[in-house]
Amino acid sequence: MDLLARREHSYRELLRKLRQRGATTSAAEVELDRLVEDGLLSDERFCEAYVYSRSQRGYGPARLREELRQRGVAEALVEQTLSEAQWDWQALAQQVFSKRFPEGEALDATERAKQLRFMQYRGFSGFQLD
């Protein structure tokens, strides 16, 4: 409960943390299943909170997809959350680009490649410079 009081966690993330603290896998799974039944642990809620938090920091769908996969969230849930209408990824990409590169799109091929690499690192893999 102490871990959940701080922030949302995925099921697999909590299982890993409990095992690191000495709990057996079967005992940890029993307790986590009880938390899921009580509505205190939810991968859906974790996924939404994570996407909101990280997108506010300027991270795009490709990076978020990978981070959520590493945290044990189901692929279908990740895709469903990232495709919701509330996320305007193109507008966020434009905002991130203009904040990092206020001078706009570079004319030099080397600088342009640098800009594209930055956007890919941030998770906007399909981002097109205008």
Automatic annotation (TrEMBL):
Chief site of localization: cytoplasm
As for subcellular location, the record says: Cytoplasm
RecX third three-helical domain segment(s): 90-126
Q: Where is the RecX second three-helical domain?
A: 42-82
Q: Which Pfam families match?
A: RecX_HTH2, RecX_HTH3
Keyword entries, A-Z: Cytoplasm
Tell me which family the UniProt entry assigns to this protein: Belongs to the RecX family.
Q: What protein name is recorded for this chain?
A: Regulatory protein RecX
Organism of this sequence: Halopseudomonas sabulinigri
